[in-house]
Amino acid sequence: MSQAEETAEITTGGARGIDDRKNAAIRYVFFSCALVTVLTTLGIILVLIQGSVEFFQQVSILEYLTGTEWSPVIRPRSYGVLPLVWGTLIITVGSALIAIPIGTATAIYLSEYADPQVRKIVKPTLEILAGIPTIVYGFFALSFITPIIQYFVPDTGTFNAAAGAIVVGIMIIPMVSSLSEDAMSAVPDDLRNAAYGLGATKFEVSTRVVVPASLSGVIASYILALSRAIGETMAVTLAAGMSPQITTDPFEPIQTMTAYMVQIGISDVSVGSIGYQSLFAVGLTLFAMTLSMNLISLWIKSRYREEYQ
User: Which residues form the ABC transmembrane type-1 domain (predicted)?
Assistant: First the structure.
């Protein structure tokens, strides 16, 4: 081997070594970023568990899970979380009744009926709703939705579950419509053309071919939107009130788990008291609910993706 060839090989080897070190450094940077997110999640879980353990050392878990009265600060004290869970579920179910049909219909329109130019305008406009601060939605519910409800149901108070459910339903429509539209647009055109070749109409292709073929993404959008509804805070705090109770009347005030956490967080409850520790128990309950829904979403996506591949 000539000296020139040896010099070229050394130069190439040196450059390759520098590239390897750069790649290794970049890999460690990305790994560190991923590690930060994992450690943050673990830290949140550990804090919730630690605070909840201190709470349940003073309160029976059975009383917490089955009690129908919630008043951990004001005497007579009671620690049944069911009123908060009930209020959260009312908001979640009510918002789902609004967001799922409207969001799905919007997604079908954008995917199957809208012209490309119309889609470019309508979809970003819809997604603007997701960028509006939630406290603005709360004031919107107080100043616009609640007066409309009071016009038809005069006995309705300023705070009520119906206004909270409606405003949260409006909030999560963009999530349902955008994610569902992405799933429907990903359906191969071969399926549509085959259906048209069999004489199917546009509506039949949309509802009997496209929607079933994109079912995993559509259902995942539902569950993610409902997870957002469960964790919504400021809008329901302003619209639904802070009255923990189990009621089937949507025009009565209620309190969700997130609204309770806001109430205690801004109050003068002393650190270490039973009222303060209840924050961690409620937070852990809320975390368990949203985690369960996300796991169900992942299972549904994997289950139906296998079916349609």
Answer: 85-297
